[in-house]
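Subject: sequence -> structure tokens, single chain

Hey, anyone have a minute? Need the predicted structure for the following. Not urgent.
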Amino acid sequence: MYPLLDKIDSPADLKKLSLDELPQLCTELREFIIEQLSHNPGHFAASLGVVELTVAIHYVFDCPHDKLIWDVGHQAYGHKILTGRRKNFDTNRKHGGLSGFPNIFESEYDSFGTGHSSTSISAALGMAIASQLKGESDREIVAVIGDGSMTGGMAFEALNNMATANPNMLVILNDNNMAIDNATGGLSHYLVDISTSRTYNIFRKKATGLLVRKKISGDGRDSLWTKLGNSIKNLINHQTNMFEGLNIRYFGPVDGHDVRYLVHVLQSLKKIQGPKLLHAITIKGKGFKAAEENQTAWHAVGGRFDIHTGELLDKPTDVPMPPKFQDVFGHTILELAKKNDKILGITPAMATGCSLNIMMKEMPERCFDVGIAEQHAVTFSAGLAISGFIPFCNIYSSFAQRAFDQIVHDVALQKLHVVFCFDRAGIVGADGPTHHGVFDVAMLLPIPGMTICSPYNEEELRNMMYTAQLAESTGPWAIRYPRGRGSMIEWETPMEKIEIGKGRCLAEGTDGALLTFGPLGVRFGKALEKLKKEKGISIAHYDMRFAKPLDTEILDSIFADSKMVKVMTVEDGALAGGFGEAILRYKNDKWSSSKTEIKNIGIPDKFVTHGNVEELFAEYGVTTDVIEEYFC
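Reply:
Had a minute. Here:
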């Protein structure tokens, strides 16, 4: 089915092909990715866009001796397929199978683990300097950064350091003008300006041909022809090149889908010492019409699809389904913003993913996509808050880890009312350890003045958002909720103010107590009902709502009751430093004489692997089976 691709189990096999065979290989690799993801969904458009780059890199460089670092990582499917993982690629993102991202424990060809953006240049720079220190003059270091990752502040920090460290390394900027949504900010406009400058590109085409004929690549950085080429390029370019200004040799822009030319360029760049950047223009979703036309929707495919038409096969049924928590957020913030002029929406390049795009469509002037820049998003929100606005800063939970310092120093220390909405909290599934939002509660609990809450269902999410925008004098809030659907079909009820730091009793009981934090309370509550019905064991169920401040009235009533000898806490975050430990600490401090036993259920001291949510909860013991085991 794939005459060339089927013969490739390593880059060594790839190098046996002729240059003229590479376009056919690219076609086969692209078709293989499309076919595989049509029945095993995953990140789609980004990997299609770098097929030619992937083939050219592995054709020219000698991995794993040469080090190849992929930024974000969802661009790396082609890389995985060409490096010995084609035959088991159907296990991608499945429990026990291949990771959806580069993983150093999976393959020697994965030089650095990635999942968050903007890290590749820093890691590559470290490797390049390490090679210098070891005297490894024959080792090449290549970083591929794209899909909006260059907007992250860490990438700029690395470029700045790279300019002065003068390492021998190559950065390939995969410029598709996209993150998940369209790229935003001045850098994206700057790159578009370079790539569309008619004067610059006419010059580049003619001058490159001349200089290549004079073999400037082999003459070295200080050769006459190299100096002449750089002088002409700087003269003809209609504005100062940012990268050249940093003493980083800039090449491009080049067609990122011309594999033969890419091989030629990379072979030339391999001979040039020092820091270099190749600017390649690509199309996200290249080769699949539906993905090219709607790059945001096809960034990651949520279900199976027809490889010929792009029609989604896993269509919604006629049975009413609860909405996704992120959609409830999107509709609710718009509803609140219509009534409160101070409410603003902020996201670091996740407008569609977190559903802030719902508000953006009606109120674009009150929503801000700041690019992949979580730290900036937080301090930008702080600037809005100190000026009298109420920013709802929506960041995926695992991405919020990157802005911990800003949350502490720029928001909490100044008691600013920023409402953080941490989407994708808890176990997220196939994206794996880089994306599970299990550390947010443990991260935030030590911060003075922080209010931390998690909704039991969609109605409670609306109530928490409503309450947060009213509580301007309370400092920062964090509302965390999981990826996926909740439990309510009818959720658009009128919003109500809830009392801060107060839980609620969902079921009375005398044989023990269950304290839940967040939507896991729904399934554990049903398990309690079953236990009572089948075995007559009566367990009180409290939806605690808040991890900080804790409802001490509920806790005091439990620990003071001599009959309440068994208590279980349930959360979808890390046990170490989490909600359950906060309750244990309160008991030890205030009720050390109480005979109440407490069992904490949550994520153990491990990095959670990838797989579907139910498989992962089962692997780490967060299942309703523990109810009967503990209370019976």
